[in-house]
Write a structure and sequence with these properties.
The protein is α+β, with helices and mostly antiparallel strands and 346 residues long. It is 35% helix and 18% strand.
Length: 346
């Protein structure tokens, strides 16, 4: 059994399609050629060179190394890993079908394989740091082998995707020191994982509510934070103005657990908004949301916002300089500039 990383678009724009259709796709635009009919990589190189004439030879070579295995090396029974951009989680599925080509498209969905998703989205925090590092490979499609990933993911699967046990991770990774692969890593994603781990270390449980309150204060809100324990339906109340009497008035619920939140707690927040006479609501779920919760809440767009770890980090970075000094002391961060190159990815 091999483990394959497949990205659902550069920005996660195809995640819903992959998950709902139980398929994974090659997402190169205009690549309307049947890979199964090609006898060697040189044919794919020629086809990609013709379609992407502005790309450098090295870039074409890199793309061929990603696309070719989709048709010729992946096998039924292999697992695919889809790191989500919409929330801090990973989907893992088992390949159930052979390579298929639909030359009529639509673009870019010419090449696909059927998969069976194994359970719901799995929180990123359930995986070891080294596996997350591999999941951050700056590639659209690649095989994950380093640090004995295949055996470790098989163990997690047998345990219903429970979080990895550190001693077991150490034992397994030592056995695979000779199986190192060279991958370009998405440093931004890797840094986000490290910051997320630090947040969970410093702001466990009700502590996350304190961090969210700090972000809201930095945005200009006056807040009331409920004591730890029963909160009456809202962890934080926030209003505009120096006394918090101006609109908008917000009712906020914060969940710090790793597991995705279902529809029921969100509906309870909608009820609490009426109780507290709030204009809008904000549901913060560190572990994200189950299934179609976000899609089902589209009808509440002008009343309710849903934050996952992704939105929390975005707001933290945006408001960091305005945070209370005590919070910044607990979570010391600094900005780092680096060259951003998109040449090698699609």
């Amino acid at each position: 059994m091999s483990i394959w990383l497949i990205r659902a678009g550069s920005h996660g724009e195809y995640e819903h399609k992959f998950i709902q259709e139980n398929r994974v796709y090659v997402t190169w635009d205009d690549l309307d050629v049947d890979l199964a009919k090609m006898s060697g990589r040189s044919e794919l190189t020629a086809a990609m060179t013709q379609r992407y004439s502005e790309a450098k030879p090295k870039t074409i070579q890199n793309w061929v190394s990603q696309v070719w295995p989709f048709a010729h090396e992946m096998k039924i029974g292999d697992l695919v890993v889809i790191p989500l951009k919409s929330q801090p989680a990973v989907y893992i599925g088992e390949i159930t079908g052979d390579y298929q080509c639909q030359p009529s498209g639509p673009s870019p969905f010419f090449h696909s394989r059927t998969v069976k998703w194994i359970g719901e989205a799995i929180p990123r925090t359930h995986f070891g740091k080294d596996l997350l590092f591999s999941f951050g490979a700056f590639m659209t499609i690649c095989r994950i082998k380093r640090n004995n990933a295949e055996q470790r993911i098989a163990v997690m699967r047998n345990k219903n995707w429970a979080a990895e046990n550190s001693p077991v991770v150490s034992k397994l990774t030592r056995a695979s020191n000779s199986d190192e692969e060279t991958l370009d890593i998405d440093l931004e994603e890797s840094a986000r994982d490290k910051i997320a781990a630090q947040i969970m270390k410093r702001f466990k449980g009700h502590g996350l509510t304190r961090l969210i309150e700090g972000i809201l204060k930095a945005q200009g809100y006056t807040t009331y934070r409920s004591p730890e324990g029963a909160d009456g339906g809202a962890d934080i109340l926030a209003g505009s103005g120096p006394l918090g009497f101006s609109t908008p008035r917000l009712c906020i619920e914060v969940k710090s657990e790793d597991n995705p939140i279902g529809r029921e707690p969100v509906d309870k927040l909608l009820g609490a908004m009426t109780k507290f006479n709030a204009d809008q609501g904000l549901f913060v779920a560190w572990g994200g949301f189950k299934g179609n919760v976000q899609k089902e809440m589209a009808s509440q767009f002008f009343r309710l916002r849903l934050w996952t770890q992704k939105e929390i980090l975005e707001q933290l970075f945006e408001q960091y300089d305005r945070l209370d000094e005590d919070l910044k002391a607990e979570l010391p961060l600094k900005r780092v500039w680096m060259v951003a190159s998109q040449e090698e990815i699609l």
